Structure formats: structure tokens, C-alpha cells
Fold this protein.
Amino acid sequence: MKKILRSDIIRIVTLTLFITGFFAISISAQTAEDPIFRTDRIAIFIFLLIFSSAVLLYTNWAKKGKELFVRKIPGIAAVEEAVGRATEMGKPVLFIPGIADVEDIETIAGLSILGRVAKIVAAYGTPLSVPVRYPMVLAAGQEVVEQAYLEVNHHDAYDPDTVRYVAGEQFAYTATVNGWMMREKPAANIYMGAFFAESLLLAETGNAAGAIQIAGTARPEQLPFFIAACDYTLMGEELYAASSYLSREPLLLGGLKGQDFVKLLIIIAILIGIILALFNVGGWYNDIFNVS
């Protein structure tokens, strides 16, 4: 596996070097009176070409069944443990897919994770509660949960009120959910999506109720509150990677691995630039990445 991956990486790097060399020759050969390319946009073109190639390549590998390594995310791995704890205690699981509307990418990531949680809950026969703030999230959440129950052949146990509309105002929603937590004492609270000022209120209330808590958000200003009050926290891009980690969907895996590969190339490019700058021979290299 490592040998195959190494050869594929060498192939991509070779293609990248060839393209870079081709455009470098084109730049040196053209004149101001007779331009062949928009030289101030070549770096962007190369970046898009490399990124697209990497995503397509990894997606193709995933579709062919090649095992792609994705780093284990402890918070996601703990979801089944949390649901198992709730089952043993005979208490419900609370899932909050953020408080943003459905067009927010964090809400979409949260709904994707909700699908996986709903499957585990359906298999264990554990009560699930999903309070939402927007009608569109309500419709999407109901569809996701019902589909999860169908996939594990427990559709007869599906309750349409599992996903319910609570309130459209931020702190009215928070107060309602906090009151429910203190009354029902859920064994597991899962927060996945976009959160704002209510994050600490929710997390502290859940902590006081004695629940195991797993949180994930891409909002850096809310992460300290979740880290302080929750048992596991997905930080930044881990929230988006979690959907790929859980579903193993080729398109999602291809995008995730393609991004990781491009990040690696960017790091290498930065290191090469630093080394060339130290020896004061990096003028031509800087020109390649200069976008005017």
C-alpha cells in the first residue's frame, strides 16, 4: 500500500514539475508585445490544475475500493460509546446540529454526522432528541433521521417528533434546550455545527446534568468554551472531515485527501522558497507565485 501511494505521489509531483517548467519556459519566451498567457494568473491556473487532479485521482481510487487512510478522530470514535452509555442508563441522546440555517456549511456537516448518530441510536433502540431553530433544518433533519432508521431496518421505531422545532430566537432556543436538559438528564449531548454566544450556556448546562459531551464547530471563538466543558471536541476542519470519516463516501474522501495533498505541496513550496531566499537565489521562484 505504501509503495503504491509513494509511486502515485511521485507521478503527481512529476506532472506538477513538468507543468511548472512548461509555463516557466513560456514566460521567458514571450514578449510584452506578443503575450501568450496572462502571466499574472499562471500560478492560480497551476494551483487549480494540481488541486483538481489530486481530488479526481483520490476520488477515483476511493471508487475503485482502494483503502485511503483518514486520521482517527477521537470525538467521532467516542459517539458509539456515548450512545451505548445512554442505552445502559435508559436515558436519551441529545443532538444539536448548530443554530445556523441549512445554507451554512457547518449545519450541513452537522446533519451529515446526525445521520451516523441516528443509525447507532436506531440500532440500540435509544431515544434521540434533535431540537432545531429553523424550519429548513427541521425538514432536512427529519429526512436524515428517517433515512437512518430505514437503513438499519427499524423504520417502525422512527418518531417524527425526534427532530422538532423549538424557537426561532437564539436565547429562547437556548433556554428551552437547557430546561429540557435539566428535566430529562440526557446521558449524551452531541453538539455539531455553527454555535455562537449560546455555546457556553449549552455546554455548561449539559455538564451540570452529568452528560458525556461531544462538540464540534469551525468557529474558533467558540472552541475554548467547548474544550473547557465537553469531553471531546472537534476543532475546525475536523468537523468537515468527520462526515468523510463516517460515511467513507468516495466523493467526500476524494475531496478530503485532495485537500491534504495540496496542503502538503504548499508546505513544501514554502520551505523551498525559504531555502532559496536564504541563499539569495529565489527571484525566479518568487515570480512563479507572484499574482499581480
Q: What stands out?
A: The mean pLDDT is 84. The chain is about 60% helix and 10% strand. The chain has two domains: 2-70+249-289, 79-230. The first helix runs from residue 2 to 29.
